[in-house]
Amino acid sequence: MYKEKLGLQVRYRTRRSYSFCFYSAWLLFLFICWLSASLAMPGVPITPCLHFAQIAMKFISIESCQTSGKGYTFFKRYVWNQDGPEWVPTLVILRLNRAALCVQWSPKENKFAVGSGAKTVCICYYEPENDWWVSKLIRKKHNSSVTSIAWHPNNVLLATASTDGKCRVFATYIKGVDSRDSVTSLSTDAKFGELILQLDLSFSWAFGVKWSPSGNTLAYVGHNSTIYFVDDVGSSASAQTVAFRDLPLRDVLFVSERMVIGVGFDCNPMVFTADKRGIWSFVKFLDERKSTPSSSKYGSQGVLWEKN
Amino acid sequence: MAGEESFVEVDHAEAIITRIEHKSRQIERLLRLSRPVEALKTALEGSPPKTIDERCKSANWIVVHRAMMAIKDVDALFSSLDPEYYDILMKYLYRGLATGDRPTCDQCLRIHERLTERAGLGCILRALADTVNTV
């Protein structure tokens, strides 16, 4: 079930990963409690995004509220910290004037990024002196809403996908939060907000960008039923376009270095793998389908093709 | 600066139109030899998607239309057409459907049915979602 209205990302897991089922069930429980509490109050705020940081035991929620006086919609972000049995919210001012679309903690959980409809990405970090979360904006580079963001494992690089069809990689080095040792060859001496790479592969909206576990490969989907894989992002980026026969995907997930699962409008997860040469292709759907006249062609190269 | 760009565009457009005329002569020849599938392949090859010039697009459309209307056996078409042509054919099918002309639409719909079976809904999405490379 794809709960697009609530903005939750439902991740498909195999039967073996019970811990993930527990974690997502726990998150859902929290959300339901919060929703029932907030519905009782007037001026219902809506939470379009939620992300949980497992190690730091914090989570972020973004709310939109309407003040009755001016009819303004503004966006608040709360970082929830566990204080004993309760979760205590801390307000973070984002300085956005459009919807926040996606949020994610960085791998070290000391920063988080928010993509918005205001064509900006907000990177927020904690300043211990003032006990406050500060936000820095990446403006000017995006031509349209930022639909999806993904942190590289090195905690400094951020990939963004936008409805202008481009996928961009930025450096988000923040003095005092990131150490220069963690920086790889890709982002040496890169300032905050510097554009490292811009991928112009898609002619339609881009969604669902993700890095592979090692950070070597980047994958994102376009609204024209294609999925793009970019290998060796650091040294010599090589891109592959895999066009498939069904409805577009909305999000992807790297199960391993060579396997990606995509979910989308077909309500049926699709599995993509890379072979020994590094060529990605569609393998199968996760759910079994009833056989159709051309079902034998699902896995073959005759129907699905890839261009380098 | 804009003037310079449009000057370059016009030159380039003339070259494209010459190519299209050359292509249409080839296609007439193939149709006389009763090879409609190859005629269609020739017409689809080298389509100028990135040109903004309407004349080039119209010229190419006329050529593709001629080849498409000559196709009688749609199944034979798909048994020999390579998958790389599916996307561009779908775009031309939608252009044909937009004309509203009865025989064109009939032929387009016949081909569309078979093409969707072969290439799936993704092909339709690619034809519709791509606003940059239009035909």
Automatic annotation (TrEMBL), chain A:
Coiled coil start-end: none
One annotated Gene Ontology cellular component of this protein: Arp2/3 protein complex
Subcellular location: Cytoplasm, Cytoskeleton
UniProt organism field: Amborella trichopoda
Residue ranges of WD repeats: 139-170
Keyword Cytoplasm on entry: yes
InterPro entries listed in its UniProt record: ARPC1, WD40/YVTN_repeat-like_dom_sf, WD40_repeat_dom_sf, WD40_rpt
Domain of life: Eukaryota
UniProt keywords, alphabetically: Actin-binding, Cytoplasm, Cytoskeleton, Membrane, Repeat, Transmembrane, Transmembrane helix, WD repeat
A biological process from GO: Arp2/3 complex-mediated actin nucleation
Annotated family: Belongs to the WD repeat ARPC1 family.
Annotated Gene3D superfamilies: YVTN repeat-like/Quinoprotein amine dehydrogenase (2.130.10.10)
Protein name: Arp2/3 complex 41 kDa subunit
Record GO terms (molecular function): actin filament binding
Keyword Plastid: no
Transmembrane spans: 20-41
UniProtKB/TrEMBL annotation, chain B:
Keywords, ordered alphabetically: Cell projection, Cytoplasm, Cytoskeleton
Keyword Cytoplasm belongs to the record: yes
One matching Pfam family: P16-Arc
Keyword Cytoplasm: yes
Cross-referenced Gene3D superfamilies: Actin-related protein 2/3 complex subunit 5 (1.25.40.190)
Segments forming a coiled coil: none
Quaternary structure and partners: Component of the Arp2/3 complex composed of ARP2, ARP3, ARPC1/p41-ARC, ARPC2/p34-ARC, ARPC3/p21-ARC, ARPC4/p20-ARC and ARPC5/p16-ARC.
Similarity field: Belongs to the ARPC5 family.
Classification via PANTHER family: ARP2/3 COMPLEX 16 KD SUBUNIT P16-ARC
Record-given protein name: Actin-related protein 2/3 complex subunit 5
Organism: Amborella trichopoda
